[in-house]
Request: fold
Amino acid sequence: MTLTHGNRPLGGEYAPTMLGSRGAYPAPRAAALSGVPLSTVHDWARKDVLVPSISPERVKLWSYADLMGLRIIHWLRHEKEVEDGRLPRTTMSAVKRALGQLAELDMALWTEDVGPSVVVDRAGQVLVRTEPHHEADARQRILDDELDVLSPFPIADGLRGPDLVAPRPRLRIVPGKLGGSPHVVHTRLESQALGALADSGLPSAKIYRLYPDIERPAIDEALDLERQLAHNLRPVAA
Reply:
C-alpha cells in the first residue's frame, strides 16, 4: 500500500501519524456531510463495506476519514457516463486499497487555515496534493478518472455533500477540533448549535443578538449549511 503526497510516497516530514480517528459523527451526520444516503451508510456498515472506525457497535460513530471513504466508495462503485460510452464500476479490491490508504492519512494536515487537497483515481490510489484545498465556492473537480474527495459532492436525487474543509467561506471543518463539527472559523461555535436554535423557532434576528461577536454573514452561512444537511437526510424517492 502506498500513500503519496504530490507525486511521491509519503515519508519523512510527511509520515502519517495515525490520527485518522479524528472526528466523530453519528450515522445521520456522516450521511449528511458525505452526501451519501443514510440508508446506504447503514447498509455498508452492516455488510462490512465501510465499518465506522470510531465506534463500530451500539452508537456507531464514523471518522473524518470515513466521510472521505463514503464518497470514494460511492464514486468508485457507480458506473460513469462518458462521451464515448460508460466506465464500469471499479473493483472492490481497488475500493479496499483506497480505504486502507485513508486509514493512514494524517488528519493534522488540516487546520483552520485549510490544508491540502485529496484525490483518488479509479485504481483506488489516494493522492495528497500539495496545493491548498480550495474553499467551498471553488469549482468542484469530479472528473472521469479522478475524484477531489473534499470538494462538494453531488450524487443522484439532489443530494449534495458540502465541502469537507470549508463548507462555507466563513465555516471550517477541522478533524481535531470539536469532534470534526462544522463551526465558524476561528471560534468554537458549531453550525449545529445555531441550526438547533433556528429549528426551535428562534428567528435569525434573535440569534444574531445571542452572538454579538460573530459576524452575521457567518451565522447565515451556518444556518444555510444546516438546511443543506437536513435536506440530505430526507427520504430518497423510490
